[in-house]
């Protein structure tokens, strides 16, 4: 269950309080965050859905959030990044989900403020499964004693796993598309449309996956004091997934280019075959036209006004046309 923000009743919020690695409270009012943070042993998570500037005003003052970071959180379409400020860090990332039906990639921007004992996440309504994130934390509650690093790991682990699954699903779709390219019974117009949709989804996916390598590397620096020795192997696992996803998207980019080039080559070959067939049939059709035209002259010629002249022209048409057809067939022009 979420609670409405005090600043804006339309802004939904979620809250959690951990103390000494134990979840003590959940979904308490936002205006209690500062009071609960007075305890140095407390770690608080606050999630804001569709917040306004007024919603941020109180939280920004209580947590000493930098004005530039708040502006980045309020304005969409920031690149994936990790910015460091004096009293906190600002993380921007994207959760993705690939819909294999239309071949479309759904992208959700998530911003996070990381302080010494608090994590504030910001996102748009209806686009991020916050319950899936909390389940991820509950499944790894043995790491909760690590404090804010535990919350950051759960968030990144959930996001990166979603990106990896999207890359895997996109790879499967591209393999199916590769088979359809060589299928003569396939609807080639639909294949081209599907290829275009998958290419756009891949471009969007690369934009959010590739920068994550730098984000995770920066988070793991000891100077930030977010990742301790206990969390280091878990963040290393996330980094490994990020690298794998990044390398996979690069290989898919080459695969898309290859499929597109193959499509163009196949189209060119089909056009050449059609042109050969049209030209061959035009040559065959020209034979009876030429012969009947010759026998249609208004001057005497062998067989003029004789029945055997008609049969000679008919036999000539059939023989020459059959000869041309045989020659073109042997050369695979028909």
UniProtKB/TrEMBL annotation:
Cellular component GO terms held in the UniProt record: plasma membrane
Keyword flag Cytoplasm: no
Subcellular location per the Swiss-Prot or TrEMBL entry: Cell membrane
Ranges annotated as spanning the membrane: 278-296, 308-328
Topology with respect to the bilayer: Multi-pass membrane protein
Gene3D superfamilies given in the database record: CorA soluble domain-like, Magnesium transport protein CorA, transmembrane region
The protein's name in its UniProt record: Magnesium transporter
Organism in which the protein naturally occurs: Amycolatopsis xylanica
């Amino acid at each position: 269950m979420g609670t409405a923000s005090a600043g804006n009743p339309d802004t939904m919020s979620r809250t959690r309080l951990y103390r000494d690695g134990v979840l003590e409270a959940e979904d308490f009012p936002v205006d209690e965050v500062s009071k609960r943070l007075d305890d140095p042993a407390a770690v608080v998570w606050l999630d804001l859905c569709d917040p306004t500037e007024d919603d941020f005003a109180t939280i920004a003052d209580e947590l000493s959030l930098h004005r530039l970071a708040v502006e980045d959180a309020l304005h969409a379409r920031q690149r994936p990044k990790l910015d460091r400020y004096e009293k906190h860090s600002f993380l921007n990332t994207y959760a993705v989900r690939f819909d294999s039906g239309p071949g479309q990639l759904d992208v959700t921007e998530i911003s996070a403020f990381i302080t010494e004992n608090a994590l504030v996440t910001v996102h748009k309504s209806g686009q991020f499964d916050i319950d899936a994130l909390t389940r991820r934390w509950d499944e790894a509650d043995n790491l909760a004693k690590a404090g804010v690093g535990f919350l950051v790991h759960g968030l990144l682990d959930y996001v990166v796993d979603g990106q990896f699954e999207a890359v895997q699903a996109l790879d499967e779709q591209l393999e199916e598309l590769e088979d359809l390219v060589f299928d003569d019974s396939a609807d080639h117009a639909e294949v081209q449309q599907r290829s275009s949709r998958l290419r756009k989804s891949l471009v969007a996916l690369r934009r959010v996956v590739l920068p994550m390598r730098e984000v995770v590397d920066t988070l793991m620096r000891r100077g930030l004091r977010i990742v301790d020795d206990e969390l280091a192997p878990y963040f290393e696992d996330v980094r490994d997934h990020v690298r794998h996803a990044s390398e996979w998207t690069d290989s898919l980019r080459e695969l898309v280019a290859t499929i597109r080039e193959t499509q163009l080559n196949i189209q060119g070959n089909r056009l050449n075959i059609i042109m050969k067939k049209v030209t061959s049939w035009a040559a065959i059709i020209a034979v009876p036209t030429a012969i009947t035209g010759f026998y249609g002259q208004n001057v005497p010629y062998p067989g003029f006004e004789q029945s055997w002249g008609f049969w000679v022209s008919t036999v000539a048409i059939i023989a020459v046309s059959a000869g041309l057809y045989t020659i073109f067939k042997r050369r695979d022009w028909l």
